[in-house]
Amino acid sequence: MNHRALACTTAILATLATATACQPAETTSSPTPVTSATTSSTGSSDSKAKAEKKTVPDFVGMGLQSAQDKAQAVGFYGLKSHDSLGRDRMQVLDRDWQVCSQNVKAGSIMSTDTDLDFGAVKLEESCPARDQNAPSAAGGSMPDFTGKSVKAARDALDLSTSLTVNDGSGEDRFILIESNWQVCSQHPAAGAKLTGQPVTLTAVKFGESC
């Protein structure tokens, strides 16, 4: 390479170096994170319905389903029901039952978180003068089951009790729905100490004579 060419090459390289040095250094920047607005945490507590004071309506004489609908319309949602005749029957179809009593007196000012308990009987039945209590073996003594349903008697005894139920009509009928059968006699007798001995009941259907 001649001196002229070398000089030109050197000049070009020098120019390129100068241009490169003048360029600003390239930097890598991270995008600024987006900060979202803070969400209030008070919504969960505010969303819960607060108990209020309401007047308890008179439900006696109403159909059980209608009574429950009315209670809920007022704001009472803790609803229960039981068999006023003490037969321990379940109110499977509420429209088939009528209200005989209520645990909270009509006209009372109560909190809407109060439980309302309706005593009821079937539509074709008459309400008793007062609710019949289911028998209880509390204290370890044999209750008096006479006139009570076989189901109520069974529920009053310890689950481990050996229980035999005989048809009092002598027809040896199968006792399928125990709440439809009433106790005529029992062994051991009422008041006897329960020590795990077997219990025998004689029963007929409600409406039949013992």
Beta fraction = 15-25%
Overall pLDDT: 83
CATH fold-level topology of one domain: Trypsin Inhibitor V, Chain A
Strands, total number? 8
Write a concise keyword list for the protein shown above.
210 residues; alpha/beta; Trypsin Inhibitor V, Chain A; three-stranded mixed sheet; 4 helices; 20% strand; elongated; disordered N terminus
Concise structural overview:
The protein is α/β, with parallel strands linked by helices.
Structural description of this entry:
The chain is α/β, with parallel strands linked by helices. The protein has helices spanning 3-22, 43-46, 64-74, 150-156; strands at residues 53-55, 79-83, 97-102, 109-111, 116-122, 163-167, 181-187, 199-205. Among the domains are: 51-122, Trypsin Inhibitor V, Chain A; 150-205, no CATH class. Strands 2-5-3 form a 3-stranded mixed β-sheet, covered by helices on one side. A 3-stranded mixed β-sheet has the order 6-8-7, with helices on one face. The protein is elongated, with a radius of gyration of 41 Å. The model is unreliable at 1-48 (pLDDT under 50).
